[in-house]
Design a protein that fits this description.
three-stranded parallel β-sheet; 37% helix; 8 helices; five-stranded mixed β-sheet; alpha/beta
Length: 263
């Protein structure tokens, strides 16, 4: 990951000040990101939202619990905070492959891992949680979060992103998602990918893709975040998360197998 520096444009500072006031009365915010093994630019793509959060004045802990994440330190079960690697003043990284399962309870939930993060690293306003859809369901199933999908230009990548959306919608009742598309901003491919995922989510799942940001992996990571990425980050920071023990709403059974095959 790269070093990130906050930006200080006049209008942007006003937005950041408002978000800091919002944080003053809120708890640590979890931002789930669905891993995508068919998106080789994931590492570069994940740098961009952390830069946007930093520009908004938020400290971010990237927790990589994906299938391709590094093995965690042997100390992780004893002293989680000591395993966190500082990447910049406002961004840190934790290798966490397999760590959530060490906190599984009798209900199959691993939300205790998020409690351990809150205790071990309480000064991070944002926990960017990168994991598979099934792991995110066990971690965040009772939280009012807006998961972020990752996709690139390959059909396999798009299908995997849609399948993850479907799993979380059906298992956790999540109805709203954001989307990060890796690709050049001025090409037609990224908007087409976003439109396909959005239309299938609405038609077959009854879910909404709320914010879409295009990330160009070839651009320097330390540049000013794009307007669509800042909007996505600001939306994530302003989500009013209900209590974790709030009963989930029931939704009718959905279909989606034909959509997953339509790519």
């Amino acid at each position: 990951m790269s070093m990130f520096q906050p930006f200080h444009g006049s209008g942007f500072v006003d937005q950041a000040d408002g978000l800091r006031r919002l944080f003053a009365a809120s708890r640590q915010r979890v931002v789930p990101v669905l891993s995508n093994p068919h998106a080789p630019s994931t590492g570069l793509v994940l740098e961009r939202p952390t830069a946007a959060f930093a520009a908004c004045g938020a400290n971010t802990l990237v927790v990589d619990a994906s299938e391709a994440a590094p093995e965690p330190s042997e100390l992780a079960s004893i002293d989680l905070a000591s395993c966190i690697e500082m990447m910049s003043v406002q961004t840190a990284y934790l290798a966490a492959r397999g760590l959530p399962l060490r906190h599984v309870n009798a209900r199959g939930s691993t939300e205790g891992f998020l409690d351990a993060l809150a205790d071990g690293a309480p000064h991070y306003e944002v926990v960017l949680l990168h994991a598979s859809a099934s792991d995110l369901a066990r971690l965040c199933g009772r939280r009012g979060v807006r998961p972020i999908l990752l996709a690139e230009h390959t059909p396999e990548s798009v299908t995997h992103a849609y399948a993850g959306l479907k799993l979380l919608a059906q298992r956790c009742d999540f109805a709203v998602f954001d989307l990060l598309v890796a690709g050049r901003e001025r090409t037609r491919m990224a908007p087409r990918i976003a439109e396909r995922i959005s239309s299938c989510a609405d038609r077959f799942i009854g879910a909404l893709v709320h914010e879409v940001a295009v990330v160009d992996p070839s651009r320097p990571a330390d540049g000013r975040p794009t307007a669509d990425l800042l909007k996505l980050a600001a939306g994530q920071l302003s989500i009013d998360e209900p209590p974790a023990d709030m009963a989930s709403r029931s939704r009718p059974a959905t279909q989606g197998s034909s959509a997953a095959q339509s790519w």
